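Protein 1 of 2
SEQ + STRUCT:
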Amino acid sequence: MANYSNASGWLGWDWGNVPAWVGAVLTSGSLIVASFTFWRSRRDQKREHASKVAAWISEEKGENGENLYFVNAANGGDGGAYEINVKDAMSGGLLSYIPELPAKGRTRKRIEKYPESWNPNLRISEVALTPSLEGSELRIRIADVPVGLELRDALGKRWRIDKDRNIKPMKDGSRTKPLPNL
């Protein structure tokens, strides 16, 4: 009488059937996608407060005909923004410090002291000429001097917003201190 060993599958292990393996792989893939989606939504929720704060520079003529520059800031969020440093996006120089900007609030501050490398007359311009069958189209876009922001949101998280509105968390202690005379 012969003795037979049950050696099924590769290396003698019982690997199960194909539908069970396909189900396991798809379930694992679904868990990975769900985890990634949850992580992204949490990250976006954290950034939401910072994404609703904006700043820009406006220009007016003074009484003597000189150009006066102002930092305008607005908070469209439901929570306040604190310790806001408005910086020139090109040089990184501090233009203004706003200690608090309440929810749905706006503020306007004159820029009293310019960073040495700041050029308020620098405008970003793009000129595009697009030929077509009907004729050429000329597009001119002129944008104001871009600014960057550093702020603390209502939850205490510190954020840096660059000229392209990319929002990144700041490490503690990396905040720029406001100038004493602002």
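Protein 2 of 2
SEQ + STRUCT:
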Amino acid sequence: MNIELLNGTFKIKFPYKSVCIDGRYPSTNYEVGVSIPGADLGDLAGMIAFFNNQDIDIKNDDILDVMLEVVGGLKNFSFHTDEHHSNKDYENYSYDECIGCGHILCELKKPSEYNLTKKDISFLIKTLESLEKEGANNEILYGAHEEEAVLIVNSEKYSIYHTFLDDNKARRQFFVFTPNTIKARHLLIIKKLFQKGLIPKNYNYERVKKDIYSMTQKHLNQTASKLAKGKPLYDVYFDNKGNPYAKYLKKI
């Protein structure tokens, strides 16, 4: 089950900006480091889910403010919809009619599976609406889902475009998840949360970092089991010259 990824390889230019794992992102102007379910909105949900398990009095707005600092402001805060879900009237229409991100839709419809509450969902919808009005990056994706596999890309220097053309000019599409860059960005977020006193000093720094990533992994697994069931899962690594090689793991 070998796959050829060389034509899809790029060197990361923007290590702390993010996209979703969705395979429909085009291979133009997307040299971002972080590929995570739901992009920044999904990462925010993962952070909230982590703190729901902790005895810490932290507001969702405080987590959002720190994330905005790390990504470089409102214009760099990213989430997405698609051409099939242009309706933005979240109050009067169903999530299925308004939400073009499969991961966010899964969270909104089954929040308990993601360790989220109804109050958290209301906050996420409010955040989505308000940030978009204020100029955040709500990307519109086009076309159908044709992802052939899920790629776990293990590098902080290189990554793989979600959609690209192979040597035969055939269009290839993948779900892409980047644990190394996610952990690096989480490191900055956690540091700021500690510096601002939003996480008590008696909490173990390394344990917080590990457990936040574990929640992110849980969210990935939960969504992959719904949206990528039966598809192959690969680990992707790079040699010193940036050439990728993939290792088949299992079917999801």
